[in-house]
């Protein structure tokens, strides 16, 4: 219990320090958490001041590093956005958004109309890029880097927007979730959830939104009008997005390292499991082949069946070489799962679906 409180306190301090540094608008942060984007046999890893490309068919062999020389202050927090076969979009902690040309390696300034940090992932609809910033503004930007519209919330945005049928759903640390018209940037509705939200809402086939909050709550919300359908109280803060399963089941995690299965019809608990005592989970659940994969800040990755019975478990690292898994396990092939880490030399650990370690990616010096 003491260790759990310590881990949650550390995460709270990270959360507060990022908010403070973002408000000051100056300085360089010492590190970030790796973001992973998978595209066929290639993965793009954003971390600190570089974006790495690795070959998934060759045990994570490092192919390229962008930029060739680090840009001062341009620490990267979110997974790269690939908008076509040749271009990545990456926001930096230096208040700028960059394009990365995968053919020639050129890194160019793309958008610089704000004075605050880019932490949240970006979204793309084929013509516009939707970029949430730590200043609390969601920007719509065309492919020439020109701002089309802005939508302002009351606090920092750390989550990508969800786009569905012309409407953007965006969660903010001002405690509200917003529905915004994607073409005009006009507010459709907003709902107060009572605490900060840093995860992307998910939507089911019936148009119900699901999102978790730092108020230790998971909400089901009507996407048409923003009304709250039900809410479920978790033991700890909810950092990662909920995950939709089958048979009206929703899966979620919290900062007490709990895994929850909820009934989407009424929010009732089906079962819950603590994945690792004294740890926390900041990522979401990977749902694949009727199995649930989760990774903890204590260096454990585990899988469960749909009844909550544990299938496989692997503990990585030790006291001399601690490993902290930060994000959501990423499916990179039929039998390949990637997990990003902080606090160790390796940025990415690879496992098969039985959670046997396969390889790890450590950037070349």
Structural commentary:
This protein has 365 residues and is mainly beta. Among the domains are: 79 residues, Thrombin, subunit H; 173 residues, YVTN repeat-like/Quinoprotein amine dehydrogenase (Methylamine Dehydrogenase, Chain H). The protein is built from one helix and 33 strands. The strands form eight sheets. Strands 29, 30, 31, 32 and 33 form a five-stranded antiparallel beta sheet that branches. It has a four-stranded antiparallel beta sheet with strand order 1-2-3-4, with no helix packed on it. A hairpin with a 5-residue loop joins strand 23 and strand 24.
Which features does this protein show?
five-stranded antiparallel β-sheet, 365 residues, mainly beta, Thrombin, subunit H, disordered N terminus, single chain, 33 strands, 44% strand, globular, 1 helix, Methylamine Dehydrogenase, Chain H, four-stranded antiparallel β-sheet
